[in-house]
Amino acid sequence: MQFKKLSLTHIVIFLCLSVFTFSIYSIAREKDGLLKVYFFNVGQGDAIWIEAPNGNQVLIDGGPDNAVLQRLGETMPFYDKNIDMVVATHSDADHITGLIGVLDRYEVENIVYSNIVRKSSLYDAWQEAVEKEGANIIDPVAGKVIDLGNKVTLTILHPAESLDGVAKEKVNNDSVVLTLKYGETQILLTGDIEAKAERQIILSGADIDADILKVAHHGSKTSTLDEFLYEVSPKVAVIQVGANNRYGHPTQEVLSRLENFGVKLYRTDVDGNIKVTSDGKNYKIERNR
Ligand SMILES: [Zn+2]
Predict the structure, then answer these.
(1) Which residue of 149, 166, 221, 223 is surrounded by the most CB atoms within 10 Å?
(2) What is the pLDDT of residue 288?
(3) How remote is the CA of residue 33 from the centroid of ligand 1, in Å?
């Protein structure tokens, strides 16, 4: 692991100025000045892959099974076994099950997650995988900014305070919410938050204006309020959802709200993997089934 010292790329967290170095493969990665965001089709669950212009890589959630490993295999260079940062928005099965396999297969440098204590075998397996990984752990709290380099930032908007060690079973409203910014392109990533957290975020006064909204909770009717859509004012919405899922996601209520706001909609069950590319001024969206 000596070659890590040669790495040029780094992630800086907020004001702590902690600098984490990555593998030399970061240097070998394509550097075309473009930000790429993939909303992977992993069935009923979320998995979002970010490649910063300098090659830094972030995976947000891992979906309900190991499908994410296949998506990563299709997207990453075959020799790349490092991931700079993994974010678990919350510990429901459709978000962290795949992440356990990711921690097993890849060397992950940083893990962002709220350590909310739950009584479940999945939570135990996740904790075990995190401990085994030995990554730097970042407790998400609104206001922390993760600098991905080349003026690409991930800002944490929610939760408002640390939930480390808090015990609870319903955690949708504690999802880590992030805004990804590159120049004029802003993408809002909302985990599975519901109305309560959407209202909290609006009241916090955070800048949630975005071009692209990852619709919360797979299009559940308890999320994506009109007032939230009004504040975000997205041009494009992405729903990560499995075909014929048993929850009835996305709901007609949310589809109608998005339509009323004139938002262009992409869905992983219909469009497959959805790739957003931005040069910091303009963005384009491609789908590949
Ligand atoms: Zn979910």
Answers:
(1) 223
(2) 80
(3) 32
For the chain, list residues with pLDDT below 50: 1-9, 15-28
**According to the model, what pLDDT value does residue 32 have?**
81
219: left (phi over 0), alpha (psi -120 to 50) or beta: left
4: exposed, middle or buried (Cβ count in 10 Å: 0-12, 13-18, 19+): middle
pLDDT of 6: 32
Cα(91) to centroid(ligand 1), Å: 9
* Cα 101 to averaged position of ligand 1 atoms, centre (Å): 18
Given this model, what pLDDT does residue 8 score? 36
Question: What spacing in Å lies between the alpha carbon of 193 and ligand 1's midpoint?
Answer: 9
Residue bearing tokens 């190991």: 66
Ligand 1 centre and the CA of 220: distance in Å? 10
Cross-strand partners of 86: 59, 111
Q: Which two tokens stand for residue 79?
A: 């020799």
- Secondary structure of residue 13 in the 3-state scheme: strand
Look-up: residue for tokens 């916090």? 204
